[in-house]
Amino acid sequence: MTDGSLLDTLRGIVGSEHVVTHERQLATYASDGLLQYAVTPVAVVLPGTAEEVAAVVRACHEAGTPWVARGAGSGLSGGALPVEEGVLIALARLRRILEVDVPNGRVLVEPGVTNIAVSQAVAPTHFFPPDPSSQIVCTIGGNVAENSGGAHCFKYGFTTNYVSGLDVVLPDGSEVSLGGPELDHPGYDLVGAFVGSEGTLGIATRIWLRVIPKPEAVRTLVAFFGSTVQAGEVVSRIVSEGIVPGAIEMMDNLSIRAAEGATNAGYPEDAGAALVVELDGSEAECETRFEHVKELCGKADSVRVAQDDEERELIWRARKAAFAAMGRIAPNYYVQDSVIPRTRLAEVLGKIEELAAEHELQVANVFHAGDGNLHPLVCYDGAQPGEAERAEELAGLIVKACVDAGGSITGEHGVGVDKKRYMPDMFDEPDLATFQRLRCAFDPDGRANPGKVMPTPRLCGEVPGPYRRHPLEQAGLAERL
Amino acid sequence: MQVAQAPATREELCEALAAAGESGTPVRFRGGGTKLGWPPPAPPEATELSTAGLTELVEHNAGDLTAVLEAGVPLADAQAVFAKEGQRLALDPPDGGATVGGVVASGDTGPLRGRYGGPRDLVVGMRVALSDGTLAKSGGKVIKNVAGYDIAKLFAGSFGTLGAIVEVSVRLHPVAPDSTTAFGEATDADQLSRGAAAIGQSALEHHGIDIRWEGGRGAVLARFAGAAPRPQAEAAEKLLRAEGLATEIVDEDEPLWDDQRAAQRGPLVVKVSSLPTRLPKLLRAAAEAGGTVVGRAALGLSWVRFEEPSAAAVERLRREFIAVALDRPADLDVDPVGPIDPATRALMQRVKERFDPAGVCV
Fold first, then answer.
1. Domain A97-213: CATH class, spelled out
2. Looking at this predicted complex, what is its ipTM?
3. How far apart are the first and last CA of chain A?
4. B285 min Cα distance to partner chain A (Å)
């Protein structure tokens, strides 16, 4: 519960101008990038320093008030959706780059620094590899919370591979330092446990990032095929030849049409699939491998090779515009983020097509083809009665088809509030209870981003005592299965 | 330590652990037995629980570059299977007999870490047994997945103190068709470090930059692998030469790297976590304490080896560096882990209590 005294305390910490309580202003923060959900918090607090973050969290802890941390609010799983009786802690003012150490490949940032700003700070020689499509606006704090990926993570890895240290404000307001600029600090890898925890373990206020030298050469092509199955076969051949492209992305006909309409990038609108392949690395290595990729694309209807940066940018423009361009197909869309083992691609796409037909809806598919991360975009018209519900049901069945194929409910968007209902499709009760152990070690009162990730609310309680056999087991009358 | 038990299934291992939890008997997990001396000694009443019965390579999905393995599979056996498809699990720690579970639990790595990361980066899913009889999984078997907490990272490097790793899903990588190494020698620590840094900060896509340092002389090794590694190796050699190192290109480079790996073991080996620019300082500190060094220069990780173990040597390194004692004589009076900030340690303790409520995993 939040009464006036907590608000007064918060104003005392950050200044009245940084505590938002007016209804209209609060509306700005009611949703994150997933607009299907909206909740108005009691207040939005905008601390300006790590110390203020700690004081705000401590005040919430003392008042027994839940809170949600928010970066740019660009997340696509409702991870930064506020809680009604709680406080939203917006970290936009913590946007200082505190240290740039190129010789050691390290940058120390506050959580509100944008993803692109890190690469800009170490340009032109180095870059920060995780590159979510929202990288111009999304923040490092959000990337840490979601373990963000991007188009280049098949080769380079995810946010978790590029964070070496964190200063964290725990949910009781205390501060703790995990890892540091160095790798392999002694003790448990709590940095690894924290990254991707979706804001449920605390707030990172200072983040040590690893940056790496920019590759010497980049080669990009887009090949057009009659079908996604044909394009998928080429992906498999590229990977089985031992080639690890910097990025390998696929779009189906519906997304090609939408993206081409929006960007005029020159994608043929009758193509069944577009495959963007980008190799990076040393000149010699790229050249050799790129020739090989071109050969493997021999059966494509046409292939366009980027001759310069401008053409490369044009090829990418269509791919990056795919989500936004969906407005040309339908007024609304619902994006999924499932992952499948790449070799099951043809089978799963067939299943998606079948399900879409059954639901009388269109599904456009955009994938990070190297790592099997699908983004099926379920198109619908929210103004038509029942269509939104049908779209949601279809999206759920697609997720299930991916899990059944041995995949995951989310590759990079996070579970948040949107996918928590699918968690039991992937995890059994003992698995979920094991996740909760980590949560309880950090946040025994469950006040950090409550209602996210886990499918049902859970309490922590005291640390349980040692396991004891049930009397029936002791008597040999029953066995645990 | 009590007689080793080697349950035949993960369920049986879980039951044995639960029984130990119930009776309050400390448990020490054992894989290949190659690093038993690394954690603090187990109490005498402890029982040893071995993964020797968990040796199934459950899945090798060559087309997806993933695999699922029980913890007791010897790493070398797994690599032999993956190699048939031109693939490998990119972990190359020194011990021949180590198991997959043991390598993950110890977080042990070799030169490949520079390119592919360590166990924390390559394990995509994990099944664990806990002291209250829980058998649980996290992650999955696809390489990209953010569903649920990353329990595998917590257990990687935890030395079995949270519970037993019984199965892991891993990402595999293709083995490069060819490799070659640019090699440069120097007798000056600063010069050596500058050579390593020149390559590390260049756009060259290396498969590991190592250094070695012994008795006032040392070498930089920069490995390149792929379809056409030679031009990169030549470019690296040029960088080393520009820093004044005596250089050559070694095409048959495997023995060089085997030597690097081997030097990570010894009577006393201290692993130092630092940063690339502090390498000269470390080389001097190690020499002063009587040690020799091998290291992953671009990662800032080094292994300092002492032929004559002493607590003073460890303390000397700790004056300036984060230093963890790995191999060491059982009777060496030294805290292997070294100082951890009290607030961080308290949080680690809370994690330990939640995962090992019986407090028996030692």
1. alpha beta
2. 0.97
3. 42
4. 18
